[in-house]
Amino acid sequence: MEITRRTALAAGAAAAVAPLSRARAQANTIRIGVLTDMAGTYRDNTGPTSVAATREAVAEFGASHGFTVEVIEADHQNKPDVGSNLARQWYDQGVDLILDVPTSSVGLAVNQIAREKNKAYINVGSATADLTGPQCSPNTIHWAYDTYMLAKSTGGAMVRAGGDSWFFITADYAFGHALERDTSAFVRAAGGRVLGQVRTPFPGTTDFSSFLLQAAAARPKVIGLANAGGDTANCVKQAAEFGVTRRGIKLAALLLFLNDIHGIGLQTAQGLICTETFFWNMNDKTRAWTQRIIRRTPNNYPNMIHAGCYSAALHFLKTVAAMGVPAAKASGVELVNRMKAMPPEDDLFGRTEIRPDGRRLLPSYLLAVKSPQESSGPWDYYKLVQTTPANEAFRPLAEGNCPLVRS
After folding, report:
1. Which residue range(s) make up the domain with 381?
2. 399 is a domain residue
3. What does R_g of the chain's alpha carbons equal in angstroms?
4. For residue range 202-213, what is the model confidence (pLDDT) as tens digits?
5. Nearest one of 381, 372, 362 to 281, comparing CA atoms
6. pTM of the prediction?
7. Euclidean distance between CA atoms 312 and 33, whole angstroms
8. Contact 229, 127 (CB under 8 A)
9. How confident is the model at residue 337 (pLDDT cuts 50, 70, 90)?
């Protein structure tokens, strides 16, 4: 059985989550908390569709396993203090898994709370590769993608196509810094140059015109957009509006989602390349699953974060069923160790593995955005350019400096 409850925040500050009633605090109830962006720049890329995907996993898992499942949700407002306060309250009140958590600064904060409370945390939405590097934790799994994978796939493709001089427009927080860092390393390793960077305030920036003109003045071959969501969409639109791309400069949208393309429109977005580990039109199974999700969120198609929330929740529940509820509740470390030992398998990603550092390994797909003429209809925006195998897509285990990995 799935029980859902919405949690809310008081304006401008984290409100206490309403205590879970003792009637519900039963030993055979497993609780999943989806901590996400319900109203900000990452809403469409995470938010309500992440919650819908988690609920779909619970519904498909079914009610015949001897325990019930409760899904709760909250908006962390892209603020680390709000996210960490909610995480601490949830764990203290019996939440067994926190899921999603876009915005890397929030993701890193929740990572510390999960370790402190010895609870399980599957990060799907945050991109920073530090979650499986210096900040790796025995309580955390990083599920769908990260900055290293994006830099290698999208950044590497741009360099191979002749983009050997770069200027970065970077969201000024942990995610943007990590994406700029990882992409710069690939650019330099290939013999290219980084001409400079400009940091943009996050959240709240909507006018990127001055940053784009500053980048264009450096005359790079590529402007790297080390941002995401509405920030990326605004950069792409404003680059076209101010003629930046007509100067022969290419845009590298280092984290671009299907949902961003929908907002930008194919006329402007056509030709951009991006990387995801899932796209809805991959095969019959992904198309069938997508139809189930859009019944829940009809105005928003799923991306790799939404697919990741579904996949992660399903694997978590399978692990709980295998361990038994008392053992699963007793220790987040032991629960995560069991999740690592059981190869995840589902219709969206197939059979995969989780490394000792918490990195789930998946193929990455380099995708090109179709022209309006190539698209067969709404949300048909991608064509596959290249696949990087799972064992090559992410940073090598020995190079991450994860304290859990012994050399």
Report:
1. 148-276+363-393
2. no
3. 20
4. 988 899 999 999
5. 381
6. 0.93
7. 12
8. no
9. very high
